[in-house]
Amino acid sequence: MRWPRRSSTFRASDGALAIAISGTGTSGMETAVATLARPGARALVVVTGYFGDRLCQMLQRYGATVARVETEWGRACDPSAVERALESQGADVVAMVHADTSTGVLNPVDEVCGIAARHGALTIVDAVTSLGAHPVDVGAWGADIVYSCTQKGLGAPSGLAPIVFSARAGGHAGGSHSFYFDIALLEDYWVRRKYHHTISAPLIYALREALVAVCEEGLEARWQRHHEQHLALAAGLDTMGLSLLPPAAERLWSLNAVVVPNGVDEAAVRKRLLAEFNIEIGAGLGPLAGRIWRVGLMGWGSTATNVLLFLTALKRVLHV
Amino acid sequence: MRWPRRSSTFRASDGALAIAISGTGTSGMETAVATLARPGARALVVVTGYFGDRLCQMLQRYGATVARVETEWGRACDPSAVERALESQGADVVAMVHADTSTGVLNPVDEVCGIAARHGALTIVDAVTSLGAHPVDVGAWGADIVYSCTQKGLGAPSGLAPIVFSARAGGHAGGSHSFYFDIALLEDYWVRRKYHHTISAPLIYALREALVAVCEEGLEARWQRHHEQHLALAAGLDTMGLSLLPPAAERLWSLNAVVVPNGVDEAAVRKRLLAEFNIEIGAGLGPLAGRIWRVGLMGWGSTATNVLLFLTALKRVLHV
């Protein structure tokens, strides 16, 4: 395996190509789409929030016909709904988000990838908010293209998109509409050192160091740490009478969607947390705007100290 | 003007949009192409080397019909050839490279932009090897989209592509095939703070610092420095019996194409310069492979000390 740290962090199969796109997480999404979407291709997209919708938009721009399997925001996708959609209409590509940062929900991508494979479809998985925080097991899933970013679970600066291609996905290289995201040219650049662009050396060194840190901690230990801090946060919120939006079994460890209590000005709370405690949390997006706070615990930020600090600060601001 | 340092470094007109794409110089090229190329659009490309050819490839991927005005490698483009091509076949877009890094040649983009405008064509100018080293005067040229990189004349790390759009080019926003390079979405992100992607904070800070350094030195002083060091290098090479490939009036200051003397093993010279003096110079590309060395003097690297060091090292290696 040529890129041991990148491949092992994704748990990619032998024969997979694991590189980093010179762009942000969204550039990883566009590279995946540019590789598999063609005019006439039929794509089925699992939409559980903001980035599932972005996948649809991007696939359509690249000429694919897109069908959606939608879920209520705040719930995980039901694999049987994907199965039914594939039985009734088929698909060449099935795309999905693993960890939905807009709703705090974890999708069962292992099951969906299995169903897609049985129906002969290639799979794209967005692991932007999961890699380095949640179990990502590309080889066991049998996923074809999985991309992430550097600034979340890996804890490096933003600016690169680690991405892995199965041998099967690699067979679709070439003929991409995009030059910058053409995986055939990128493979020539990374593997055979044929010039394509001038990579950002500082970002590559930073990614390397982040992957070394992942190896030193151990992937399982890292997942465990994220799980424990998520449980600690959920328990602390519970004592304050606050709850998380997704059901317990569907919750992310890296992004916690906290339901805003009735009568509370959610924007004022975020503003005070930032001004008084230097803690920035996210607002709800789309249908969840005003209804949730999004609290990240990822990479080096997922620590007991940060959980306690946040809970104490929130308690102070809410006067509970 | 919203982005004074970026705009003033390009000498862009009021009303221009000056941002930085989250990717390398090639991502700037693809953003320009994605904005102006459409299926059915007619593009005329000035090809004086490797990156003119890349412009053709990219424009074709985005659906444009491409005609080329070619020049012998090592010579600048003749504006009258562009004029004749536009008179005979017209074009919606004229694209060109300002400073050709593959041949060391400076193209008369001011004249070509004027001709294109008179024929109603929009213009794309690649200023990857010129911005911060040679006079770039987007406003006076009347160019529509001009892009560059951060790691050459500006002396910042690689990873961003500064780019400027005239108000006229901005009118072509929307409908791009690419999501990542869609200037309508990027303008919303930069100007109206609507989320598009997560920019690389360290690269933005580095670019800002590089532009501050440009302002402190002064653009004209910076151009003068590059010009003087180029002349010093050319004079030193001349005393060693070596010559530059382009005629004197067509030479770049930032990239010097040195003709390899007969009987000299050009690769061995590059290898020894690197091993013994830690100086890396470039090989010739395409038809110039084996025929030239490419010696960069750009950004903070364009100094009298570096010129002397290089000349002394080359003299030692060549035994002249």
Q: SSE string of chain A, helix = H, strand = E?
A: HEHEHEHEEEHEHEEHHHHEHEEH
Number of domains of chain A: 2
Strand content of chain A: 15-25%
What would CATH call the class of the largest domain in chain A? Alpha Beta
Which sequence of strands runs across the widest sheet of chain A? 1-9-8-7-4-2-3
Radius of gyration of chain A: 20 Å
Q: Kindly report the average pLDDT value of chain A.
A: 96
What is the CA–CA distance across the termini of chain A?
54 Å
Q: Enter the CATH topology name of the largest domain in chain A.
A: Aspartate Aminotransferase, domain 2
So, the CATH homologous superfamily of the largest domain in chain A?
Type I PLP-dependent aspartate aminotransferase-like (Major domain)
Structural class of chain A: alpha/beta
Give a quick set of tags describing it:
homodimer; 320 residues; alpha/beta; Aspartate Aminotransferase, domain 2; Aspartate Aminotransferase, domain 1; 7-stranded mixed sheet; 42% helix; globular
